[in-house]
Amino acid sequence: MTTLVVNGERREVADGITVADVVGSLTAEQRGVAVALDGEVVPRSDWSTTRPAEGQQVEVLRAVQGG
User: Any idea which fold 2-62 has?
Assistant: First the structure.
């Protein structure tokens, strides 16, 4: 198991998990979602190949319409 900090909460996840897996565990709808790994934006095209390491911070953000 690997420990990540996902949106400020420590989580135990399977070894080898990808950013796409993390996003999928949080939301089924991936439109309007952005991901940062230790403060650096991860392009959507890299989600399925980017594997967070032990202790890394993953922020999954959803765009909200309105003003």
Answer: Ubiquitin-like (UB roll) (3.10.20)
